[in-house]
Design brief:
Blueprint (H helix, E strand, L loop, with lengths): L12 E2 L2 H13 L6 E9 L4 E2 L5 E5 L3 E7 L3 E6 L18 E5 L13 E9 L9 E7 L3 E6 L4 E4 L7 E5 L3
Antiparallel strand pairs: 1-6, 2-3, 2-4, 2-7, 4-5, 5-6, 8-9, 8-12, 9-10, 10-11
Length: 172
């Protein structure tokens, strides 16, 4: 199993909305009311930019949720597997120099300290080859963050979902 060069990380790839809701709905819903402390991204030190192939980490009071996308429809959601204090050693010969960074993008800086209201699973039905692709949306007191599939890597969105996204609340 490819671990993205992250010690202890064992992604669990799912691609069906029902399977993801069954596997992660209760635990994701239990995050409601918790405070977000940090958002971690893997940073490409050579190019000084986000390396979106690696998971996005959201550290709350009691849990850290780790979200990753690959291919057109694979989504992995794990909890408390990754220690961002540990190095990232990309396991191929590509020679990437990578490290975890907390809130390295200006749009992420406003999120820590906010309380999570709820979590939604978004499903793309926009009539494109990406139909069925899933995203996870975190709605905070005065902000939101969606981690979506940007065609074989993670993407981040800070606005409400547009047309083409069906919203499915994750319930406990």
């Amino acid at each position: 199993m490819f671990d993205f060069g992250i010690s202890g990380y064992q992604p669990h790839w799912l691609h069906d909305r029902g399977a993801i809701a069954a596997a992660h709905g209760r635990r994701s819903a239990a995050l409601a009311g918790q405070t977000l402390h940090q958002v971690w991204l893997v940073w490409d030190l050579d190019d000084d930019e986000w390396f979106p192939d690696c998971p996005v980490l959201l550290a709350f009071d009691d849990d850290q949720v780790e979200i990753n996308h690959q291919k057109f429809d694979d989504l992995s959601v794990t909890f408390n597997q990754i220690d961002p204090a540990q190095p990232v050693v990309w396991p191929t010969s590509d020679g990437f120099s990578l490290a975890w960074r907390a809130e390295p993008l200006p749009t992420l800086a406003a999120l820590p300290g906010q309380q999570l209201d709820h979590v939604e699973l978004l499903e793309w039905v926009g009539g494109t080859m990406a139909d069925g692709s899933l995203a996870i949306r975190f709605i905070f007191t005065s902000a939101q963050l969606t981690v979506y599939n940007a065609l074989d890597e993670n993407g981040l969105q800070f606005d409400p979902p547009g047309q083409g996204w069906l919203q499915h609340p994750l319930a406990g």
